[in-house]
From TrEMBL:
Gene Ontology CC terms: cytosol
Signal peptide: none
Keyword Flavoprotein on entry: no
Biological process, per Gene Ontology: glycine biosynthetic process; L-threonine catabolic process
Any GO MF annotation of the entry: L-allo-threonine aldolase activity
Protein's recorded name: Threonine aldolase
Organism name: Clostridium isatidis
Modified residues (N6-(pyridoxal phosphate)lysine): K202
This protein's record includes keyword Lyase: yes
Cofactor(s), by name: pyridoxal 5'-phosphate
UniProt keyword annotations, A-Z: Lyase, Pyridoxal phosphate
Length: 346
């Protein structure tokens, strides 16, 4: 981290010294037996922060999302969600393997689904011998596109689900970024779902881990199924200590990352060969594409030689992500490196 400016994701963040100190001093026990006091503290704190009855520490965001599906859904049932959501695009088809469910997707703009979208797709097996039953509706906020769903949209989805007696799961990997953008308490987002997963290692500097939260009965069942998936950890309090610091301290500074993303987007947009998606610079992500043919593999190699790590393009777009270790001074170097590369590629 100290040798590179790393724009690949906000998952790359190494731990600041004060977080390492908390990890070093953590009191631990066996979490499967319920003896790890630091894990217990983290789970209690996490539940309180999002306004849920209980919470469970899990190894990753994908683990938390898939555990939610595994807990909510009957095998062979159907989950309604946007076609661009992380659960569909970047979780390796795990829903078919673990929960044994079918994903019924909705083509959307940046993850926004509506009452009409949902009602067209709700099915119940007793209506027709050919139908599976809808078991769950999933939404994502903040969305992987950098978009933030409005509270009004989340309320619409939640009330539609309640009308049909269906639960809503929120992939809230970056829920604190969404709350920062909307300028609301995170509870105002989480109240429009029955379960929520959020990451401690995306933008919050914890080394490992996510949280799944919901009502007490749901978390009791999820705890058992976490064990089925091999997620029953032992002296996990060292990781939980980092998670506590992440929730208490690192969530409060996310606006800095958002401001840096806006500055980066504005500076990139001044380069004639680039088109930046300025409408979706709502959190800490900047998406852009080139207006001419560019060898993006050569671009990533050039950036790396100049001390900057970036991912190659996906579907024609590149993504730069700001985080705790990206400063305004770093951004000046990023812009200069981009201009230098483009000048050499003429």
């Amino acid at each position: 981290m100290k040798n590179f400016i790393d724009l690949r994701s906000d998952t790359v963040t190494l731990q600041p010294d004060f977080m390492k100190e908390a990890m070093f001093k953590a009191e631990v026990g066996d979490d499967v037996y319920g003896d790890d006091t630091t894990i217990n503290e983290l789970e209690k704190l996490a539940a309180e922060i999002v306004g849920k009855e209980a919470a469970l520490f899990v190894p990753s965001g994908t683990f938390g999302n898939q555990l939610a599906l595994f807990t909510h859904c009957k095998r062979g049932s159907e989950v309604i969600l946007a076609d661009s959501n992380h659960i569909v695009v970047h979780e390796v088809g795990a829903s078919a393997i673990i929960a044994g469910v079918q994903l019924r997707t909705i083509e959307t703009l940046n993850g926004v689904i509506t009452k009409g979208d949902i009602e067209k797709r709700i099915r119940f097996e007793e209506e027709d011998i050919h139908f599976p039953s809808t078991s769950l509706i999933c939404i994502e906020n903040a969305h992987s596109s950098g978009n933030v769903l409005s509270l009004e949209n989340m309320k619409e989805v939640y009330e539609t689900a309640k009308k049909y007696n269906l639960p809503v799961h929120l992939d809230g990997a970056r829920i604190f970024n969404a709350a920062t953008y909307l300028n609301v308490d995170v509870k105002e987002i989480a109240k429009y779902c029955n379960s929520v997963m959020f990451c401690l290692s995306k933008g919050l500097c914890a080394p490992v881990g996510s949280i799944l939260a919901g009502d007490a009965e749901f978390i009791k069942r999820a705890r058992k199924k976490r064990k089925v998936l091999g997620g029953g950890l032992r002296q996990a309090g060292y990781l939980a200590a980092a998670g506590i610091v992440a929730l208490k301290d690192m969530t409060k500074r996310l606006k800095d990352d958002h401001d840096n993303a806006k500055f980066l987007a504005e500076e990139l947009d001044k380069i004639p060969d680039l088109t930046v998606d300025l409408n979706n610079v709502k959190i800490n992500m900047v998406f852009f594409k080139f207006n001419k043919e560019i060898n993006t593999k050569a671009l990533t190699e050039y950036f790396k030689k100049n001390g900057i790590k970036i991912n190659d393009a996906e579907n024609g777009k590149l993504r730069f992500v700001t985080h705790y270790w990206i400063t305004k001074e770093n951004i000046y170097k990023i812009i200069k490196t981009m201009k230098d590369f483009l000048a050499k590629s003429i």
